[in-house]
Amino acid sequence: xxxxxxxxxxxxxxxxxxxxxxxxxxxxxxxxxxxxxxxxxxxxxxxxxxxxxxxxxxxxxxxxxxxxxxxxxxxxxxxxxxxxxxxxxxxxxxxxxxxxxxxxxxxxxxxxxxxxxxxxxxxxxxxxxxxxxxxxxxxxxxxxxxxxxxxxxxxxxxxxxxxxxxxxxxxxxxxxxxxxxxxxxxxxxxxxxxxxxxxxxxxxxxxxxxxxxxxxxxxxxxxxxxxxxxxxxxxxxxxxxxxxxxxxxxxxxxxxxxxxxxxxxxxxxxxxxxxxxxxxxxxxxxxxxxxxxxxxxxxxxxxxxxxxxxxxxxxxxxxxxxxxxxxxxxxxxxxxxxxxxxxxxxxxxxxxxxxxxxxxxxxxxxxxxxxxxxxxxxxxxxxxxxxxxxxxxxxxxxxxxxxxxxx
Length: 407
Known about the structure:
Layout: H1 4-10, H2 17-46, H3 52-65, H4 70-77, H5 91-105, H6 112-137, E1 147-151, H7 160-169, E2 173-177, H8 183-200, E3 205-209, H9 229-241, E4 245-248, H10 254-264, E5 273-278, H11 281-285, H12 287-295, E6 300-305, H13 306-313, H14 318-331, E7 336-339, H15 344-349, H16 354-362, E8 368-371, H17 377-392, E9 395-396, E10 399-400
Parallel strand pairs: 1-2, 1-8, 2-3, 3-4, 4-5, 5-6, 6-7, 7-8
Antiparallel strand pairs: 9-10
């Protein structure tokens, strides 16, 4: 039987119906066979985790993307069939839908049940992502899909009016970096955030981010434990005070995620949501395992720390890797936090650049957008809220939504 790669080499022009059907069948069989092997390696972590369905789709997507199917995409697109370009959340179901549509074109009419199966599977993938996002980041708002996370200022510890403004403008998650301040300041921040949210009749979750070990000039991050002594002390506070969202800084391997889980469990916070901050080349390489190990414990998300990551992988590759992380996360039905330098110039100088406006619009591909602190952060929240509201009418993840235009 021809593999997808062999098929593309054999048929540089449009294949016949039978050739296309054989290619689809061969590709599906290859995906499902390799999927089983990958799932088998993950099984010890997945047992009774509730993440099995998501991991099955993730493994199928990884196997599919190991193939170069660009010629295949062009050829099925010419027949007005799916190019597989939006298959992340439902890989095998998309392959099945293409095959059934092709059979219908050949007058081999599928039954209603056969037609409805890929439709249900496609919707299930979207539903799982929405459910997992809700578990980690709270309910989706009516006017925008993405949540807004804001790094808390010291002012949040002492100025209730400022915190109220943050929430009124659109802050859904408050980010507290444990590398700064101390437990007394964090207490004040959290008290003010919760009080302001109650008065506003809104929800604002607390995301606390342990700092991770401090590097000396002669050390490499890979040589240090992911959780230092200070982090373990800070986790005592995080376990008690963070809402659904607990953070973690330098995850590079699945073992790092397990270390966090092992630390949270005896503190009575084993089911606390966690966010893996992807900021190194090693973390990118280990991303599938980090996702499986992280999500097998409870609510889980990935943060694309674009500033640190750009330094590690070279700025020229950042856009490419950012897209790949978004695809892999969607395949795992895991929410993504789009972070670092969003509206940086607006926040610091109250003068947004045109590039920042475009970047903010593209952040609608993620489930959450993180803003840094600064003197004009309230203006940035309001601007991001407005852009996200508008982009929701135009785009859902990678799919364009064709609302009526104005001319």
